[in-house]
Amino acid sequence: MSDPGLSSVGNAARLLKVFCSREKELGISELARRLGLGKSTVHRLVTTLVSEGLLERDPASGTYRLGLVMFELGEAVRVHMDLHNAAGPVLASLREETHESCQVGVLDGNEVVYVDRLESSQSLRLMNETGRRVPVHCTSSGKVLLAHLEPDRLREILDATPLVGLTPRTITDRETLCRHLRRVRQRGWAEAAEEREIGVASVAAPVLGETGVVVAAISIGGPAARMVAAQRKRLAAIVVDAGEAVSRRLGWSPDRVEAREG
Description:
Helix content is about 50%, strand content about 20%. The chain has helices spanning about 5-20, 30-35, 40-50, 70-100, 140-145, 150-160, 175-185, 230-250, 255-260; strands spanning about 55, 65, 100-110, 110-120, 135, 190-195, 200-210, 215-225. A hairpin with a 6-residue loop joins strand 1 and strand 2. The longest helix is centred in the first third of the chain and has 31 residues, at about 70-100. The radius of gyration is 22 Å and the shape is elongated.
């Protein structure tokens, strides 16, 4: 027996794909004809999709078109594809130079998602975390991403993020974390030593998009025994250069930003 919930999801996906055709706007009758579904079923589907921002209804014609959320999703896919292409060669060089695991993370809600990663070439290494969600307040990538947010967005995320102490070294006080983030922004890189997991340390730097807005963080992670304070400081300079290299591959240029500001 099929799950009606899954059937509805499948029909909703089919409905959205209809808008891949040349027509920008379609009515209930035409959607029902193309999908081979009843008008009442299609009406329920489009009502749900409109409420989620995936479709918009033209009040004058009564037809439907793709909503702003679909555009935002498409932009997110494009950015991630561009980021993957830009970061790949830089990650390979970074691993070759440091012999540690290297990854690229993006902010998703109040978590960091690692979208690209290369494993360390050494026998003692970290687990593969590509696609894994990690807390934003106790990782070097998360600190970089938080430090470069607009104040209102930072406040919104911190309001929704319990500063859970995962280890004795996790920053759990909001005021302390904010001071820490200001320092991260000033010096251009972040570190986390056994804040999320005992025995693990990392350093991270920002990746800027074409307009100069931080779109990701690039980081180096490894066993804390190898990444002591002096080593983290040395690796910080390397990861900052790597972040700038990815940024340039994404179209960022300090000259262009300065010209725009001027």
